[in-house]
């Protein structure tokens, strides 16, 4: 068994003190126009996705580091110019992206804390304090920058770069592309033409050819409620906590092998690492929650359509290309059948995402009277948007993403990860920085279920 890391007893950490705030605009004039947003952009969260990068102690001062960030950022915004724009509300709960070069926010801060005070960097309120706060209830959305950054210098000499990037800008792959090119500029490297972002999102408009959907789309239906409940309001209010569980390469392969022991004989492809691990997490959560066997449960699995469309999107497409896929099962089937059953439910969601199905999915979004009901929000306890807590779950896998290597000139990060885990049932699968095939499972569950989940997660492996 690998010992888990938990956020239940964090030491008190002094909050960072903001020293200066800057609006950074593109270094050169950029195109000004309203940019088309696809259905994938429309159902993405309008909240800012929080991430943090921690760096070892350096002799680079706060002012020097901030200047490096801002100078290189202004140049990066010329290439990734939609990031410097603003969104505003439109009819039917939709948003419009206006490329106007108004810029992004950079905050300089100092902290009396040390990097060691943050332990294993599990998302806590103290971690979240390293990222500028955006409140959509106070400031009109059209006045808010799409990206906010905070560079914090710690007493030990270490640095944190906290980022909040609106999902209207792009998905994880697009944002990592932006960060990768930004850091190259900061290091004084020449950018390669092959890595230039494809920012014209109207290419997806050519895909949205159907007047209306031709398939049923259960991924847009409300998730199952607990048996005997008429809504999820009570579940939304229950206290939650976050933990991080490390799983070795051998354990991941073991789960994959177990899942494949009972796969259909005519299935030459077999189940993936995520099919096995994701199925195991789903089963463990159902046991920990003490759900009845007849309870319906759903696990949402975001899937990238870049290469599922025919023809595929350009390799460096910059925007959102994530669609929501949903796996359904009864708790009894998940717990009494072998792991291959849970894995098959996950794999089936991906196999359904054909070119034709994706076009139908986009047509569904185009026809809904109010898109906002289908958005998620990255805010604990938020009563808006979809809720995928008990008895359901939502996953985000960063298994294949280039998470690491964001060197602004003072070395590569010692940690990169989410700054928050938004709601009960949400989990991330993150490759560790060791590069040895191990992963961290970062998950938020109700407090009353977490100890049992950790127990089942390792015991049932």
From TrEMBL:
Entry's transmembrane regions: none
Keyword set, alphabetical order: Acyltransferase, Transferase
Lineage: superkingdom: Eukaryota
A Gene Ontology molecular function term of the record: acyltransferase activity, transferring groups other than amino-acyl groups
Coiled-coil segments on the chain, per record: none
Family statement drawn from the similarity comment of this UniProt entry: Belongs to the plant acyltransferase family.
Protein name as annotated: Rosmarinic acid synthase
Species, as recorded: Phacelia campanularia
Lineage, highest ranks first: Eukaryota, Viridiplantae, Streptophyta, Embryophyta, Tracheophyta
